[in-house]
């Protein structure tokens, strides 16, 4: 049982106990320069589907290091403007594309003494999915472009360690397609079942059995049929759908990609 002089007991409201006073004194005297801080950045892997292929957004660097090379968009965290890493990612996304992505997920943090020739740096990477018709690239259009993803890259080396980062993001996207329907974020608000299936095939880089795909989609109860709305095409008009208004990462009953033809 604590005695009257026990300093660990909390005092009256508004009065600090000994532990709290010690913490406050420590922070008052603390010298943040004791530990050297690495530079911290946020990088973005932005995916869209254009012209029947998966594309990633790249920017051409205007300054050294890697001047003239292509890289993932991003930049340094600004403590005056960003109260969190997530806030920095959202800000960078708007600055690069002019839109807020409907799907933004943290991929991984990379850090080492040799990933940037300027010194020890760490970066937290996010990947985003967006319909191509929702994006209007800002700034100089020559310095930012959508580049086709081939395999797990773009066919040429990127600045810093961005080649590896892009490969990791492509792998994450394909693996998540196995058990979620995040592909909704790559489609316009209204779409047909063939358009939905084709989006999966483009990302997974394999054909899918039509009947199996549709059965799994319907079992997942993820779509809302738009009564009386159809899209004309080369054949008979196709029924239009949209995704239901609930968590768009809901799991499929089973992996769709396992029903490849």
Task: Walk me through what this model shows.
With 261 residues, the protein is of the alpha+beta class. The protein folds into two domains: 138 residues, Nucleoside Triphosphate Pyrophosphohydrolase (Alpha-Beta Complex), CATH 3.90.79; 71 residues, Arc Repressor Mutant, subunit A, CATH 1.10.10. The protein has five helices and nine strands. Strands 1, 2, 3, 4, 5, 6 and 7 form a seven-stranded mixed beta sheet that branches. A two-stranded antiparallel ribbon has the order 8-9. Strand 1 and strand 2 form a beta hairpin. The longest helix is centred in the middle third of the chain and has 16 residues. The N and C termini lie far apart (73 Å).
Alpha plus pi helix count: 5
> Whole-Å distance between the termini?
73 Å
Main sheet record? 7 strands, mixed
Structural class, from secondary structure content?
alpha+beta
Tally of distinct domains: 2
Give the low-pLDDT segments: 1-8, 246-261
Query: Shape, please?
Result: globular
Mean pLDDT: 84
* DSSP strand content: 15-25%
Number of strands: 9
The CATH architecture assignment of the largest domain turns out to be: Alpha-Beta Complex
Note the run of SSEs as H and E.
Answer: HEEEEHEEEHHHEE
The level-1 CATH class of the largest domain = Alpha Beta
CATH fold group of the largest domain: Nucleoside Triphosphate Pyrophosphohydrolase
User: Residue share in helices?
Assistant: 10-25%
- Please tell me how large the radius of gyration is: 24 Å
For the record, what is the CATH homologous superfamily label of the largest domain? Nucleoside Triphosphate Pyrophosphohydrolase
């Amino acid at each position: 049982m604590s005695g009257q002089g026990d300093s660990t007991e909390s005092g009256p409201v508004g009065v600090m106990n000994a532990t709290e006073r010690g913490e406050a004194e420590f922070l008052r005297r603390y010298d943040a320069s004791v530990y050297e801080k690495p530079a911290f950045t946020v990088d973005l892997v932005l995916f869209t589907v254009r012209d029947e292929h998966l594309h990633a957004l790249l920017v051409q660097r205007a300054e050294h290091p890697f001047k003239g090379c292509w890289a993932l968009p991003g930049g340094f965290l600004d403590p005056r403007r960003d109260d969190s890493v997530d806030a920095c990612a959202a800000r960078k996304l708007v600055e690069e594309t002019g839109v807020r992505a409907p799907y933004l997920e943290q991929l991984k943090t990379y850090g080492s003494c040799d990933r940037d020739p300027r010194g020890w740096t760490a970066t937290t990477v996010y990947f985003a999915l967006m319909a191509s018709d929702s994006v209007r690239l800002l700034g100089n259009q020559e310095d930012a472009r959508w580049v086709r993803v081939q395999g797990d890259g773009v066919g040429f080396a990127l600045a810093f360690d961005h080649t590896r980062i892009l490969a990791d993001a492509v792998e994450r996207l394909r693996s998540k397609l196995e058990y979620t329907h995040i592909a909704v974020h790559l489609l316009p608000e209204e779409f047909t079942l063939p358009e939905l299936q084709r989006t999966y095939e483009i990302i997974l880089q394999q054909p899918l059995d039509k009947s199996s795909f549709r059965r799994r989609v319907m079992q997942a109860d993820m779509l809302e049929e738009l009564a009386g709305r159809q899209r004309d095409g080369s054949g008979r008009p196709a029924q239009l759908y949209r995704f239901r208004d609930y968590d768009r990462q809901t799991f499929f009953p089973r992996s769709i990609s396992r029903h490849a033809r």
